[in-house]
Amino acid sequence: MSKRYWLMKSEPDAYSWDDLVAEGEGTWDGVRNHRAAKNLRTMQVGDEAFFYHSNIGKEIVGIATISQAGLTDPTDPEGKWAAVKVRPVRKLANPVTLKQIKADPSLPDIELVKLSRLSVAVITPEEWAHILSVSEG
DNA sequence: GCCAACGTTGGC
DNA sequence: GCCAACGTTGGC
Predict the structure, then answer these.
(1) Å between A4 CA and C4 C1'?
(2) Which of A21, A114, A123, A131 has the highest CB neighbour count under 10 A?
(3) Measured CA to C1', what is the nucleotide nearest A35?
(4) How confident is the model at residue A1, as a pLDDT?
(5) Distances in Å between the alpha carbon of A83 and those of A18, A45, A56, A69, A79?
(6) How many CB atoms lie within 10 A of CB A26?
(7) How far is the CA of A111 from the C1' of B10 (A)?
(8) Closest by alpha carbon to A86, among A67, A62, A73, A72?
């Protein structure tokens, strides 16, 4: 399976990029949406994900990598929901804001915008490359 | 099985 | 603070 790309949302009040960097590795759990959970189950070790700050900032701030996949959510007493572990890779050269993404004609169908409530979204390889190029100017 | 009411998320 | 988009719940 070739590498996939994701976007993981977090409110920086609750868990920010800096928190992930400070911890070195974070568990992505507490997801209670079937579509997002399906994305979590599809993730493989080595996949990469944009780390997006919702509510405050509303921008992609960094890149994380999936360090452990296919875990059971430790916060779910019934053990039915999925979780993964992520590690920070690097901060983006420049954060890419939601505003930029929405205004960008190269990103017409990005799941972040189309399914704005989804906490774990799919990013296509094309979208990944484009957002990186925007970040790096 | 349908649908209205309600709750949650997240942008504005 | 409001609203749109969805998901879930419960009455029928």
Answers:
(1) 30
(2) A131
(3) C7
(4) 67
(5) 20, 12, 24, 7, 10
(6) 21
(7) 14
(8) A67
- Picking from A49, A58, A62, A60, the residue whose alpha carbon sits closest to that of residue A22 is A62
Q: How many residues does chain A have?
A: 137
C7 closest protein residue (CA to C1'): A33
Could you give the CA distance from residue A15 to residue A41 in angstroms, rounded to a whole number?
21
- Degrees, nearest 5: CA angle A62-A135-A47: 45
What would the DSSP string read from start to end of A56-109?
Answer: TT-EEEEEEEEEEEEEEPTT-TT--SEEEEEEEEEEEEEEEEHHHHHH-TT-TT
Q: What is the mean pLDDT of residues A11-35?
A: 94
**Nearest-5° angle of CA A108, CA A110, CA A116?**
120
Judge whether A28 and A43 are in contact, CB under 8 Å: no
